[in-house]
Design brief:
By secondary structure, the chain is of the alpha/beta class. It folds into two domains: 87 residues, Medium-chain alcohol dehydrogenases, catalytic domain (Quinone Oxidoreductase, Chain A, domain 1, Alpha-Beta Complex), CATH 3.90.180; 121 residues, NAD(P)-binding Rossmann-like Domain (Rossmann fold, 3-Layer(aba) Sandwich), CATH 3.40.50. Helix 2 crosses helix 7. It is 29% helix and 21% strand.
Length: 268
């Protein structure tokens, strides 16, 4: 932190901080009064509401800043403030308990972190993806089981393993997400953090046993701090490709072509 505003008391020059997707809130709307800052009616988004992200310096509201410990590099911490926060916060607010079976659909930017968090939270962790080549990666990340949807439908694979208490949907493919519903236990939950462009078609009858479908936003700056703290404590780390600022266009192109494994990070 290079400088703080005149009325800011909780931060000081030199503090090691970062800012994620959630770029500020108004404190006074009904959602903020309930403590739901991420659902603020006038929430700001970093890089959209104000400049940030592709810059060496950025000015952000004081409530959007998260403290970053010295035990993790800036390159590793950056993705945790977005993809890490989203998956960690979703899992810890999902209602799943240690020992439950949690399946992570997709092993990409979100999913490769979701698998790590699920395993370290004490869940029996199942990774779901396409291709036999992803099995080794899933195991490296901590998955106890792997379902290759090229060989078996997701629902069938989950049922063979006893069904899932929770499916964390991280791959932005509506059909692939919907295909997991049949693999949920009777009162299981499909929790979506991915953002498919296309609409999702779900059969209603399987939901009548008590299954549920929900979504989760990311989190506030304090949630970001707790995400990073848990990651440092348990050894969760993102897999990144590092680019210099002058390579921003190249990094963006690789990201849009889905060739980055799994997060592109720009460094000055």
């Amino acid at each position: 932190m290079d400088k703080v505003g005149a009325n800011v008391t909780e931060w000081k020059k030199g503090d090691r901080v970062g800012v994620g997707w959630h770029g500020g809130h108004d404190f006074v709307c009904n959602n903020c009064r309930e403590g739901l800052f991420i659902n603020c009616e006038r929430a700001q988004v970093t890089g959209i509401s104000y400049d940030g992200g592709y810059a060496e310096y950025v000015v952000v509201p004081h409530e959007a800043v998260a403290r970053i410990p010295e035990k993790i590099s800036a390159t590793e911490a950056a993705p945790l403030l977005c993809a890490g926060l989203t998956t960690y916060n979703a899992l810890r607010n999902s209602g799943a308990r240690a020992g439950d079976t949690v399946a992570v659909q997709g092993i990409g930017g979100l999913g490769h972190l979701g698998v790590q968090y699920a395993a370290r939270m004490g869940f029996r962790t199942i990774a779901i993806s396409r291709g036999a080549d992803k099995r080794e990666l899933a195991q490296q990340l901590g998955a106890h089981e792997y379902i290759d949807t090229d060989k078996v439908p997701a629902a069938e694979g989950l049922q063979r393993l006893g069904g899932a208490d929770l499916v964390l949907a991280t791959g932005p493919n509506a059909e692939a997400i919907a295909s997991t519903v049949g693999g949920l236990k009777a009162r299981g939950k499909l929790l979506i953090v991915a953002a498919p462009v296309e609409a999702m078609n779900l059969p209603v009858l399987p939901l009548l046993s008590g299954k549920s479908v929900a979504g989760w936003p990311s989190g506030s700056a304090f949630d970001s701090e707790e995400t990073v703290a848990f990651s440092v404590l348990t050894g969760v780390r993102p897999r990144v490709e590092v680019f210099k600022f002058e390579q921003a266009e190249q990094a963006f192109a690789r990201m849009m072509e889905n060739r980055v494994r799994f997060r592109a990070v720009l460094t000055p």
